[in-house]
Specification:
Layout (H helix, E strand, L loop, with lengths): L1 E10 L8 E8 L2 E7 L13 E6 L4 E4 L1 E3 L22 E6 L14 H12 L3 H7 L7 H8 L7 E4 L1 E2 H9 L1 H4 L6 H17 L3 E5 L19 H14 L3 E5 L10 H16 L3 E4 L9 H14 L4 E5 L4 E5 L11 H4 L6 H9 L1 H9 L14 H7 L5 E2 L14 H8 L3 H10 L13 E6 L7 H8 L4 E2 L16 H12 L8 H8 L1 H6 L16 E4 L5 E2 L3 E3 L8 E3 L2 E2 L1 E6 L2 E5 L2 E2 L13
Parallel strand pairs: 1-4, 1-5, 6-7, 7-8, 9-10, 10-11, 11-12, 12-13, 13-17
Antiparallel strand pairs: 1-2, 2-3, 5-18, 14-16, 15-16, 18-23, 19-22, 20-21, 23-24, 24-25
Length: 593
């Protein structure tokens, strides 16, 4: 008898093949049978009885998604659900990206790592301080600490350059001083040890956009080639792992740097014969540079160098609204409402007298030492790049949807239009001030998704950069998998779409293959039963909302989806009808050692 079988669904198996109607049989956490139905003579599906039969008639059956760029390093110690990712068909996450993490750690230096993570990834330090349970020093000790935790998804992690440098070099490493040969040798031993213990890779950050909460660049930002190559070689000695990085110039701070970075990345990939994966974005300062970098990567890939750019599914930027960042946070009347609940504050902001007062006031002084404290200046001068995205959100809005254009249409000042747009209630809410607007820093230079489509279809590109678990008050891109299915496969109107089977492969088999996870990402016998049953016609990505459910009352943006009938991890249903079942079959995922 099977544990379960999914019958009557249209299977998109993750290989890129066209959808086909089939039944899927599951036993002991594995797919044991995929039987086509109604397409071949004598094909009547799986007749073996099952404890549970799941009717997927009219639905699509997809592999569980593998998200390779998340930051749940701390959250995983207190939270077994790992939202937002687990609500978007994701069954495997890879954390420890961008050179930050929580192991190894010198006893007594835990708070320093928290501040580093808070600065780089905008995860509230108070939430990490209150929520995290420590109990390790080494990276293998961190893995052992997580090994027995039951989770809603499988969790894999890389060792980050920042904690590694601080552990070995102390304050010298934290200050980005050059590493000596002895330093490099000591770090290399720990990298090899981490991969042998199950780390999925090594990560580093070299972009000046990544800074600790005090403004200091991430340790490793200025690392020389001898350090980078020494750590890359050590990683390769440890086993099958990935060298991941945010390169210099990734955020547009130096448009000449990415080409230089690609040179050493290509040489490293060739030497160690391990994947080197880097963040690639379209930047306004050089809107066509990404294409040159993609072509260089493709040529290197075709020549045998495993060089993989990670690309995003949509514009990459900040969400603006009264619940998070906005242009009025330094006005006295707004600050006087800080003691209210979000719902109470929303009603106050909607009162004409409060609106008039806030719009008439001058800003109070800005503390430039505080992260995002000066964002209101950027918002105020960038109204021609700040888009109203609506509900359901439209991530490919035309220029007529900028705040500046709407203000002109209404005949009002720009900040007045911004205030009113942020005040609009999102669907399903019972109070105002819930609308979010988008200011895209990357991937929207041309005010359309044509560049993103080209990145997604490039043979060297890998779907990544969701940052699940990070940028809690400003970004909510853990919903990338749902966005691929809705916008790119079904809803896009301003340009060409992409085939469903291509997109599913991009977010399952391809991402799994990058990290050598050959046991998942495809719906076929012998693979893990990580699966989604999706009502694609009904699949909807809702507007982001602010939740206050992190430890210490920390806030984070959540983006819900409806249309996922069922998500299964290792043969156990973890979500049904979009709701958590409470099952925790996910485990720590150790790499090939």
């Amino acid at each position: 008898m099977l544990d379960s079988k999914i019958v009557g669904g249209l299977v998109v198996d993750g290989t890129g093949a066209a959808p086909f109607r089939a039944d899927v049989g599951i036993k002991d956490g594995m797919i044991v049978d995929v039987r086509r139905t109604g397409e071949l003579p004598g094909s009547s599906g799986i007749e073996t009885e099952a404890v549970e039969t799941i009717d997927a008639t009219g639905k699509h059956v997809l592999p569980g998604f593998v998200d390779i760029h998340t930051h749940y390093d701390g959250q995983v110690t207190w939270d077994t659900l790992l939202e937002p990712s687990s609500g978007h068909g994701v069954t495997t996450v890879v954390s420890g990206n961008c050179g930050v993490g929580f192991a190894p750690v010198t006893p007594g230096r835990e708070e320093w790592l928290i501040k580093l993570m808070e600065g780089v990834e905008d995860i509230p330090g108070t939430a990490l301080t209150e929520g995290m349970t420590w109990g390790w020093e080494s990276f293998p000790g961190y893995l052992d600490r997580l090994a027995d935790r039951g989770l809603a998804v499988d969790f894999g992690v890389q060792i980050g350059h920042g904690p590694l440098r601080a552990y070995v070099m102390g304050d010298r490493g934290a200050r980005n001083e050059p590493a000596t040969p002895d330093d490099i040798e000591a770090m290399a031993r720990l990298v090899q040890e981490a991969v042998e213990a199950g780390a999925l890779g090594f990560s580093t950050s070299r972009t000046l956009a990544h800074r600790a909460i005090g403004g200091e660049p991430v340790p490793g930002t200025f690392a020389a080639e001898d350090e980078l190559f020494g750590l890359g070689r050590a990683m390769a000695r440890g086993g099958r792992a990935v060298f991941e990085l945010a390169p210099t110039g990734a955020a547009g701070e130096d448009i000449l740097a990415p080409a230089r970075e690609l040179d050493w990345m290509r040489r490293l990939a060739e030497e160690i014969d391990r994947p080197v994966s880097y963040a690639l974005l379209q930047v306004d300062a050089a809107p066509n540079l990404w294409r040159e970098l993609m072509e260089t990567s493709a040529a290197a890939f075709e020549a045998g160098a495993p060089l993989y750019p990670q690309v995003a599914a949509r514009p990459f930027g900040l969400l603006i609204g009264f619940a998070g960042l906005h242009a009025f946070s330094h006005r006295q009347t707004f600050r006087s409402l800080s003691h209210l609940t979000p719902r109470e504050r929303g009603f106050e902001l909607a009162r004409p007298a409060v609106r008039t007062a806030i719009l008439a006031e001058q800003d109070l002084p800005v503390d430039r030492s505080v992260q995002f404290d000066g964002i209101k200046d950027l918002i105020a001068v960038a109204l021609d790049r700040l888009y109203a995205i609506g509900d359901p959100p439209d991530y490919e809005p035309t220029r007529e949807r900028t705040v500046a254009a709407i203000a002109e249409q209404r005949g009002v000042p720009g900040l007045e239009a911004l205030y009113d747009l942020m005040l609009e209630s999102a669907a399903g809410t019972d109070h105002p001030a819930t609308s979010m607007l988008m200011i895209p820093f990357f991937n929207y230079s041309d005010a359309n998704h044509d560049a993103i489509r080209e990145m997604l279809t490039h043979p060297a590109g890998v779907s990544g950069l969701s940052d699940g678990g990070a940028h809690c008050g400003t970004i909510c891109d853990a919903s990338y998998p749902t966005f691929l299915l809705t916008h790119w496969a079904r809803d896009r109107t301003r340009g060409e779409r992409l085939p469903l089977e291509f997109l599913v492969k991009k977010q399952s088999a391809d991402t799994a293959a990058l990290f050598g996870l050959g046991d998942r990402g495809v719906v076929e016998a012998g693979k893990r039963a990580d699966l989604n049953v999706v009502d694609l016609d009904r699949l909807t990505l809702h507007t982001p909302r602010m939740a206050y459910d992190l430890p210490a009352g920390g806030r984070r943006l959540i983006q819900d989806a409806s249309g996922y009938d069922l998500t299964m991890v290792a043969g156990t249903v973890t979500r049904r009808g979009g709701k958590d079942t409470g099952a925790r079959p996910g485990r720590l995922l150790r790499g090939a050692r």
